[in-house]
Amino acid sequence: MAIADGFWGAVLDTPLIRLHRASEATGCEILGKAEFMNPGGSVKDRAALGILQDAVARGVLTPGKPGTVVEGTAGNTGIGLALAANARGWKSVIVVPETQSREKLDFLRMIGADLRLVPPKPYADPGNYVHVSRRLAEEMGGEAAGVLYANQFDNPANGRAHEQTTGPEIWNQTGGKVDAFTCACGTGGTLAGVARALKAKNDKVRIVLADPEGSGLDAWVKTGTVKASPGSSVTEGIGQAARAPGNLQGAPIDDSVTIPDAEALEQVFSLLIDEGISVGGSAGLNVAAAIRVAKAMGPGHTVVTVLCDGGARYQSKLFNPAFLREKGLPVPSWLA
Asked: Is 44 an active-site residue?
């Protein structure tokens, strides 16, 4: 049995899980990469670690010496950054829109992050959490003072982490028998990095971006212009209505689909009650997209997707009957 060297050594080698109901419904092998099994509980641990490893390589941060990591996040990247920073003796300042799930906010406080809540603002507004975090890092002295602005949306170390780890793991775990990969995008790092890794092995692997309603990345893939689709979504940390993040630029994406919340939540609830797998909304969206792609490709194919994080981080929303009814979303029978 391998022994991991703390948090930094444990962000690797998550299993692929066969999703039985989705596989049987499509005649394909639909496999979910269990990223909720990372030590910080989400796929964002990989981006966090890659960004901090890059900062160490560039001499911005030094393990055991004073340093601070600053980032604007929907929550999961902040959790990964804070835990990884704790493990190396650094502080973390995490800026989060106040509308994110209570569970993620409580967790950030619990692990010692300096949590700064801001009102939700569009990207064009200077009060947007991304811009607030960047200004904070600058005001604290920037890299010359040992303060890293993680910049997950445009930092190439994000996508590179997935290109070097997540993508090769998927290739090896499937024995190279992967026909398609679906993934939602917040920063774009997971999709872009995995896409580059898989396409380098077989350029016929189909890469499909999964987008929630209200985001403009589906239109960007198809037309080159970000244009938000009608509606909105209760999923957190995915979709972009204003721009395509730097991580997505040049990524080899073949297609995209927009998934309504009801379709995504159907998969969240099915995975939980039928297969014993607890995931959040973005994972439900990813699985719904994988099912669509599998049906379009036909039986006998292997489609891989990402189970981004666990459902416990959304108990007050996705598993709250009052919240679901308020949003006009289905309430599963065991919660009703």
From this structure: yes
